[in-house]
Amino acid sequence: MKLASWLKSNGISARDFAARIGTTEATISRLKNARAQPSFELAEKILEATAGAVTPNDFLKRTSSADATPSGDTSGLRVLLIIAGGIAAYKSLDLIRRLRERDTQVRVVITRAGQAFVTPLSVGAIAGTAPYTDLFDPRTEFDVGHIRLARDNDVVVVAPATADLMAKLAHGHADDLATAVLLATNSPVLLAPAMNPQMWAHPATQRNAQRLTDDGAVLVGPNEGEMAEVNEAGVGRMAEVPEILAAVERVAKPFGSKVLAGKHVIITSGPTHEPIDPVRYIANRSSGKQGHAIAQAAARSGARVTLVTGPVDIPDPSGVATIHVESAEDMLEAVTSALPADIAIFAAAVADWRTQKKVAQKMKKQADTKKMKLTLVQNPDILKTVAKGSDRPEFVIGFAAETENVIKAAKAKRRAKGCDWLVANDVGHARGVMGGDVNAVHLVTETGVEDWPEMGKHKVAERLIRRIADHLATDKETA
Ligand code: CTP
């Protein structure tokens, strides 16, 4: 049952109900209209207070479908958040928290007016790093600089975006850090307007909003509802945090830089099948999900991608030249024929062994013997062959599938195979990495080991491609 109908049929006001479950009247109004997603705790309290008449599941389902999709998975993204001066600035603290929960890198700029609503101290405590406040602060200007701050982001979010800040941006002003960054950025800009309904409706604000949209900025909200000021309602409420998160995910540019555009990237993926006879083969549990996701992410970054894959049950990624092979020997052949390349990423779980004898007919059971022996010989090491070959791509990345001593083994493998980086994952049975949708990897580089938190294989792929792009861009800058 809908919360609004339940309240109505029971003659309970939003205010009384809010007090009963320990939340605000505004929250209840939002939930009544299914405009926001309640937390599980809140849904549970509602369940309790309504004696089960409004089920949390149904409630969460209905409200979440009313919420913007995508889900707001911003993991791995780099967000620069600008907090301008509006009462809705308090919601930005929650936004920072939610972004960080999702393993999103957040840097914050607070305008002078913004500091009247939230303090740099509280923002810094939640963001885990001090916010930037002043265009001419020696720390920001010399250590980071507004140009630097404007770069290295996947999206710049202005929340709340006030009428004044939108007016300045629409006219290209750059007289403080926030506007200077917004003018200098090459990242997508997401604005979450928040203001009094009269200010939002004013033709000047509407003109500015239109101009900003024409310039490529994306607006989320404002929503209709009650304002913070008593007896004020209309369109002007800042979008709710889940809506902003979903917009961040949607708007963020896929990959930070254009360094990969036009580069040839070869990727291996999936298992290999080593025939025993015409009907049987040796294989492993690899699904190809991680390798294929990397190919997809590389293609989205503008690279020309050749994917060499063993037998898998997933579709070929779009915009990628995909070569299907069966055995390790075929895979080596396909990879070497695809060279030269700028980058090679070896994500395939290549079978280390194949049968020595090629058998043309199905092997029959022998009635007199209970045992059977297969003689196996080692397969070529594709990664090693390419990494140590004369046609070596500029950048080579290997994977390591380990079930114990993951980091130690990965470091040794990086050296032994001659690759630049190695992505190590624990493929022990209990972890469900092989065939599953998530992965927790360690990136072993020439300088150290980065432990990435568990995330979807697509996110691992995007983060890896972004890391490669950043690394090559820095290399170019320092060359
Ligand atoms: N690899 C390869 N060719 C092989 C075996 C492995 O190209 N014949 C590549 C994999 O694609 C991966 C890396 O080498 O990028 C490491 O694979 P892994 O299975 O972890 O290691 P192995 O070399 O097979 O060593 P071991 O099984 O002894 O751990």
Defining traits:
3 domains, Rossmann fold, eight-stranded mixed beta sheet, 479 residues, 21 strands, 434 Repressor (Amino-terminal Domain), alpha/beta, binds cytidine-5'-triphosphate, five-stranded parallel beta sheet
Walk me through the structure:
The strands form six sheets. Strands 12-11-8-13-16-17-19-20 form an eight-stranded mixed sheet, with helices on both faces. It has three domains: 64 residues, 434 Repressor (Amino-terminal Domain), CATH 1.10.260; 174 residues, Flavin prenyltransferase-like (Rossmann fold, 3-Layer(aba) Sandwich); 195 residues, Rossmann fold (3-Layer(aba) Sandwich). The longest helix has 22 residues. 42% of the residues are buried. It has 479 residues and is an alpha/beta fold. It starts with a helix and ends with a helix. The protein binds cytidine-5'-triphosphate. The site of cytidine-5'-triphosphate has 17 residues, from helix 16, strand 16 and helix 17.
Let me know the number of strands: 21
Question: How much strand?
Answer: 15-25%
Tell me the strand order in the biggest sheet: 12-11-8-13-16-17-19-20
CA distance, first residue to last residue = 64 Å
Q: What number is the mean pLDDT?
A: 86
Q: State the share of residues found in helices, binned by percent.
A: 25-40%
Tell me the number of helical segments per DSSP (H or I, 4 or more residues long): 18
Enumerate the distinct ligands.
Answer: cytidine-5'-triphosphate
Class per helix and strand makeup: alpha/beta
Largest sheet: 8 strands, mixed
Low-confidence stretches: 62-69
CATH level 1 class label of the largest domain: Alpha Beta
Q: What is the third-level CATH name, the topology of the largest domain?
A: Rossmann fold
CATH architecture of the largest domain: 3-Layer(aba) Sandwich
Number of domains: 3
Shape descriptor: globular
Oligomer: single chain
Q: Please, what is the CATH homologous superfamily of the largest domain? A: CoaB-like
Rounded radius of gyration (Å): 27 Å
